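Input record (one chain):
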Amino acid sequence: MKKFINLKILIILVFIVCCTQKPVIAQKSKIEVLQSKVKILQKKISQLENKIARLEKLLSSDKATSVSSQHGVNSDGWKDKQNWKKLKKGMSKEEVKKVLGKPGKIRTASYGDTWYYPDVLGGRVNFDAGRVEGWSEP
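The corresponding structure, as predicted from the sequence alone:
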């Protein structure tokens, strides 16, 4: 009888060991699957963040173009010789910007500012106290 009870206990222990290890193996495979899915999602998130950054950059450049167009600023106006003929002494910086566009380079000095179109080798507009003092076409 004692052997029979020992045998029953042994069978029960074997059954418990076998039954409890299967869920552990199943849990490991579930964890591996979840880890794999997390890696895939992390890659997708990174790709989406890159796309968002590119779109935001495009959007900001479009807004800048749109804002300059809405305010009558022609960014390439300096290329047109006729626009240089529209300049007059005493014009404000905003007026010059509307005619010639945003300068490629600005130098500020104690005697006034100089705007260069597109750079120091091109045209320039000299300002004194914020008003056009003179210019030279590119």
